Amino acid sequence: MTKTQHTQNTQNTQNTRTTKNTYLVAGATGTVGREVVRELLERGQAVRALTRDPAKADFPEGVETVRGDLADPATLKAALQGVTGLHLITFTGGYEPLETGPEILALAREAGVRRITVLHGGDQTPLQAAVCAGELDWTVVMPVEFMANSLEWAEAVRAEGEVRAPFADRLSALVHEGDIGAVIAVALTEEGHAGQEYVVTGPQALTVREKVAALAEARGSEIALVELTEEEAAAGMRAQGHDDATIAWLLDVYKNTPPVGRTVTDTVPRLTGRPARTFAQWAREHAASFGRA
After folding, report:
1. Segment 285-288 long-range contacts (CB within 8 Å, at least 24 positions apart)
2. Which ranges in the chain are annotated with CATH 3.40.50.720?
3. Where is the stretch described as Disordered (predicted)?
């Protein structure tokens, strides 16, 4: 190789690394969506945050906020112009499965989108099925229980110093929402992830007892764990407005957590090059929400 060729190859590599692409993030105001936005910004990419109400959105400087609704594909045409990668969720704001996958994919192809990531929403949804059957490079990201779900205990911990929950010894390989966002950002911006379905977990499977202990340590004062019976848990969910079918499903998931929900994977370290964040770290980050002593 001549000196000139070596110099040209080096310049080409540098240009590849510094190329700024534009990524459209749906669900950008959600728990995971915000982390996807943050991770893409840290990678030096241009980010468009899709939201139904831009006036209520609050994103870091440099994020372009655009109006759009996955349930109404016609609203996405302008937002998709110039976009390299698209991150999708599979439910409407009312948690109804989206049926608009084919229309969204057609618009994405027309706009020149090259990659799509989908945040798995549980069962195979129509939108996810459409993406996986489509022509564009896709990656499905399947997180287990979010660490952020523990915030549902925050009010009771602040007021009563206790957590009331059933099945205190059930195991969960719960995952930090930041790690979900990091995996999605990698899949959107790097080669080699097309056609993959990634299960994303934290670094350890914990019981409810262990989670409560970690929260108590982080906030600097004890938290009592009151283990509910199934009947007591069902009554509490009913009081929160859940219907019987949802209650039955939730109790079954809690009581019989499937292996995928309690088995640690290496997805986070393998894709991001760093360890998955622990629940103890998440607890320290959110100690104020639980009434730091």
Report:
1. 286/150, 286/151, 286/154, 286/218, 287/215, 287/218, 287/219, 287/220
2. 1-143, 144-175+201-262+276-293
3. 1-21
Question: At 5, which helix (H) or strand (E)?
Answer: helix 3-18
If one looks up domain 1-143 in CATH, what number appears? Answer: 3.40.50.720
Distance CA 140, CA 25 (A): 14
Q: Is the pTM of this model over 0.85?
A: yes
Q: Quote the CA–CA distance of 158 and 176 in Å, as a whole number.
A: 22
Gap between the Cα atoms of 56 and 42, Å rounded: 23
Tell me the residue type at 223: I
Report d(CA 290, CA 275) in Å as an integer: 26
Lookup result for tokens 């994977």:
265
Residue 222's contacts (CB-CB under 8 Å, 6 or more residues apart) are 161, 216
HSE-CB at 223 with a 13 A cutoff on CA atoms is: 31
pLDDT in tens, 26-59: 999 999 999 999 999 999 999 999 999 888 888 9
- For residues 178-198, one letter each, b for 16 or more C-beta atoms within 10 angstroms of the residue's C-beta and e for the rest, the string is bbbbbbbbbbbbeeebeeeeb
Give the whole-angstrom CA distance, residue 240 versus residue 152.
12
Distance CA 57, CA 2 (A): 53
CA distance 152 to 175: 16
State which fold the 144-175+201-262+276-293 domain adopts: Rossmann fold (3.40.50)
**How far apart are the C-alpha atoms of 200 and 182, rounded to whole Å?**
10
Tokens matching residue 248: 């039955």
C-alpha–C-alpha distance, residues 117 and 128, integer Å? 10
Two structure tokens written together for 287: 């100690």
Query: Which among 59, 46, 60 is positioned nearest to 18, based on CA atoms?
Result: 46
CA–CA gap between residue 103 and residue 126 (Å, rounded): 12
| pLDDT above 90: percentage of residues in the chain | 84
